[in-house]
Design a protein that fits this description.
By secondary structure, the protein is an alpha+beta fold. The protein has a domain of about 50 residues. About 25% of the residues lie in helices and about 15% in strands. It contains one helix and two strands. Strands 1-2 form a two-stranded antiparallel ribbon.
Length: about 70
C-alpha cells in the first residue's frame, strides 16, 4: 500500500530524464537521473512524440542519439 508521501496528485504522472526508454534511464542507468511529477497529458503527448522520433529516425535498441535541450 502506498503512503501519503507516495500518492500521485490528480492529473500528474512521473516523468524521468534521461528517457525511461533508453539504457541511461532509471531502470538501467547508473542512478544519475531526474524524476518529477508533470502534467499527465503533456507527458503522454511527449511520449508519443518520442516514439515518433524513434520510428521516423529508425532508432533501434543500442543506437546512439543526441538530445539537445533548448
Amino acid at each position: 500500500m502506498a503512503s501519503a508521501a507516495d500518492a500521485r496528485p490528480p492529473g500528474k504522472s512521473c516523468d524521468e530524464y534521461p528517457f525511461a526508454s533508453t539504457w541511461q534511464g532509471a531502470k538501467y542507468g547508473n542512478g544519475k537521473f531526474s524524476r518529477r511529477m508533470v502534467n499527465a497529458k503533456q507527458n503522454t503527448d511527449a511520449g508519443k512524440a518520442l516514439k515518433g522520433f524513434y520510428t521516423y529516425s529508425r532508432v533501434l535498441e543500442g543506437d546512439r542519439f543526441l538530445v539537445w535541450i533548448r
